[in-house]
Write a structure and sequence with these properties.
Blueprint: H1 2-16, H2 22-31, H3 35-43, H4 58-65, H5 68-76, H6 91-98, H7 101-109, H8 124-131, H9 134-145
Helix pairs in contact: 2-3, 2-4, 4-5, 4-6, 5-7, 6-7, 6-8, 7-9, 8-9
């Protein structure tokens, strides 16, 4: 009888998509900009703030990859805009690092903390200056004065 119960639990968990891998899959899908898979996984109950084995969240993965549509989907699903990956960097740090201007703007609209320093003591503004992303520098300067 116990085996039958376990089989049914196994079947239900996999049928609804609520597998232990679902959160890791969301980070992977976000990191490659797969909008349909991100939507599917969120609908199946994936945790939008989950950490993958490598320490990335779906939002940090999408922001660093430049996937604006995925960033918006995650934020609409209430992803923590200020969550840090294991290295201590937030999504806005990665967007500033890679020069993803529209993502920086979107993250600010959703309440990203532009004065939150990394573990190394850097601000998103510092990295935008270092990388020469002038438009992002101006956006972050304006946002930090608010």
């Amino acid at each position: 009888m116990q085996n039958k119960i376990l089989i049914w639990v196994f079947f239900i968990v996999y049928a609804c998509g609520c597998t232990p891998e679902i959160d890791k899959d969301l980070v992977s899908a976000a990191g490659i900009g797969d909008v349909s898979k991100v939507n599917f996984l969120i609908q199946r109950g994936a945790d939008v703030d989950a950490y993958a084995i490598d320490g990335w969240t779906p939002l940090t993965a999408a922001a660093s990859g430049g996937y604006l549509d995925v960033v918006k989907i995650l934020l609409e699903a209430n992803a923590d805009v200020n969550a840090r990956e294991d290295g201590g960097n937030t999504a806005i740090f990665w967007a500033a690092y890679y020069g993803h201007t529209e993502i920086v703007k979107t993250l600010i609209l959703y309440g990203a903390n532009v004065i939150k320093k990394t573990k190394k003591g850097q601000l998103p503004l510092d990295i935008a200056i270092e990388k020469g992303h002038e438009e992002i520098v101006e956006i972050l300067r304006k946002a930090s004065v608010r």
